[in-house]
Queue: 4 jobs
Job 1
Amino acid sequence: GAGVSQTPSNKVTEKGKYVELRCDPISGHTALYWYRQSLGQGPEFLIYFQGTGAADDSGLPNDRFFAVRPEGSVSTLKIQRTERGDSAVYLCASSPSGLTNTGELFFGEGSRLTVL
Amino acid sequence: GDSVTQMEGPVTLSEEAFLTINCTYTATGYPSLFWYVQYPGEGLQLLLKATKADDKGSNKGFEATYRKETTSFHLEKGSVQVSDSAVYFCALSFFSASKIIFGSGTRLSIRP
């Protein structure tokens, strides 16, 4: 499809395990964002890529969280030594050139992570 | 820091009722303001936006006016439909910044 695609849609893991979440943005979009949405809360910013580089990673909560976008398209969010507090829906969004354009982000449906 | 506060839900209305969802913001400077909507089983999508004071954003019968004096951006619709049932998020951004800041969301349910 033409929208932002996220996989897996659901992931259940055990405390301490490693998890990877994938995002495939809209073709041609240079800007890519990761957000985290906890139950009953709004999306919380994690990291923003412009092309291959992380332009702003100020929202990553600690060094267990890392994200890459090696070819400027698909991005992977990596979480090491998962904790129960990491349970949330992880949202990916893309935009043609970042918020300096229309201000509009195009979101995927999210990856729901549950840490037991 | 910059933040958005919106009324807590859930909000339940009958079809054709008038809708208001309150949103206020705190920001240094003059941000752009947005309403995003999340329909069941779908990703968030932009509903409407306003980029400067007194601007009115509108889409699908929804409206919101950027009020600098009250730092508000309330969402309104004159006659809601069952298909409007969704979660609505108020948000702000500065175009020089790298992120949108979201409120906590308001769940809206419309009874037939």
Job 2
Amino acid sequence: EAEVAQSPRYKITEKSQAVAFWCDPISGHATLYWYRQILGQGPELLVQFQDESVVDDSQLPKDRFSAERLKGVDSTLKIQPAELGDSAMYLCASSPGLQETQYFGPGTRLLVL
Amino acid sequence: GIQVEQSPPDLILQEGANSTLRCNFSDSVNNLQWFHQNPWGQLINLFYIPSGTKQNGRLSATTVATERYSLLYISSSQTTDSGVYFCAVSPHSGANSKLTFGKGITLSVRP
């Protein structure tokens, strides 16, 4: 069964450093999502892509976060500079199209020291 | 935005018992999914169920869209069912299809 791939699985960094996360969605899925999950809470959307276009990035802290999906396939989420409050699980999900089942990857657990 | 409330917040069961988890939402939805988050943090998709009833083994789910709630039933619970169960919805309105998650239900199944 096809799965969403994410790397790295764990990342420890110091504040003010740059970090990057990678996501490879299920083949053929046009819609890609990045969510952030703080411990004890449900995930919240950071950014949504439809193919290579951003559909919603209203909750993305654009002063330090950036996301791209250049060829409409895999995607990179970057944080620069990282802050202590960025410690969380970063989850990538994909779906065949809008309003269809979303499938989640294993996530990247980030710890900022 | 749409509100999602899950109840109860915590649930402790003896192995073999049955349980019902509830999700209330504040607006009509195009998408409703139930997830199980395992101890490693991965969200496992259980059901895509914006309306109707579905069953998968010991799990079943029912969404009554007109009354804005969904129920997840777990029968003959096993210790491996332990974890956090999330309900997530995407409203009819709006151009995007982001999921809004509830706060989750923490289930502990004791042997």
Job 3
Amino acid sequence: GAGVSQSPRYKVAKRGQDVALRCDPISGHVSLFWYQQALGQGPEFLTYFQNEAQLDKSGLPSDRFFAERPEGSVSTLKIQRTQQEDSAVYLCASSPGTETYNSPLHFGNGTRLTVT
Amino acid sequence: AQSVAQPEDQVNVAEGNPLTVKCTYSVSGNPYLFWYVQYPNRGLQFLLKYITGDNLVKGSYGFEAEFNKSQTSFHLKKPSALVSDSALYFCAVSPSHAGRRALTFGSGTRLQVQP
């Protein structure tokens, strides 16, 4: 079956531009996560949705980062006024249930954002 | 707050030899532990998890991991390495309480299996 789909695959933005990154989770998956992976590092948590509710946004690094999942399926991560330190791979992951602490995550291939 | 340490940036092993990728963790309460693998330009793929029970956990592609509570470790192992196992491996921990659902990942260990 279809996995987690992320688009675009690559994004180059000039410093100061706004970007929007899309995630299509596996159909029916309740939980959705966004992670940021800097070069040579492990993924770092950004935010978590359970259906359309954003239950945890403690990992968002600044108020320039905003995420939504209005209908409980597709999610968008928006970064306003991009900075060079925002350059990273942004990973989306979904999980079928709400007990995510004991369920494996299904990751997309990520969006590589480069801010010039 | 929970944390994960992967002390080796890279592990080199010859094909057919056993491999070990090390992981130690810190978490309040009981840990839920995971290993994920990442191939170039791909997302992470789940390998195995420890929730409770037997300390030796078996996972995908012949990998296994041993949970050691006293040493707070969860090392990944495989009896006989394949060239195709070459990839980036991440250990992750989740807190056992439901309030915080996100995984905390280590910085990763690159496994290089030489033919």
Job 4
Amino acid sequence: DAGVIQSPRHEVTEMGQEVTLRCKPISGHNSLFWYRQTMMRGLELLIYFNNNVPIDDSGMPEDRFSAKMPNASFSTLKIQPSEPRDSAVYFCASSWLTGGSGANVLTFGAGSRLTVL
Amino acid sequence: GESVGLHLPTLSVQEGDNSIINCAYSNSASDYFIWYKQESGKGPQFIIDIRSNMDKRQGQRVTVLLNKTVKHLSLQIAATQPGDSAVYFCAEKRPVGSARQLTFGSGTQLTVLP
């Protein structure tokens, strides 16, 4: 398996532009997570999906952020309009969550580094 | 509020020595913990995990110790190598709210000196 695949790896855009980050989770995993990493705040969970359904989006900063998972093999995180404070590395991770224990080992992608000028 | 935190933000060790990275957690109800390693320019990578019904778990060159009495977690790396240089995160799974999300600590930068 190629692991979790994210694109683009790097994105530089101007304030006000729309940004779309993409993620392909590991085949067979039933859960997908979007994290944001900054020096100031560390790793923050933005949203996670289970069986393509958003379960918890309480970490999404504001209405400018949206995430979709139209099928089990693809997810997008969109920022519209983007702002300089959105500059960060965005990670997608996937996992197979069992019903009982709730324990989960996340496999992370390499991340998408976003710079908003 | 409750948080997962690390005692030391940076740690430097000589190659070949053992490393110990510490982590404090505040939620006594947390039932699962994971250590991740993040190398520069890469995503976090799973190292080892431990459930709250255990106090020690060993992997290849790594050992995780859990002390629930003082809510402390540590990662021990034996015979540290240059490739171990990275940021290490502990994460806890809290049983409340979204039960399957992990909360990550702020990370410790491990530097292995030649």
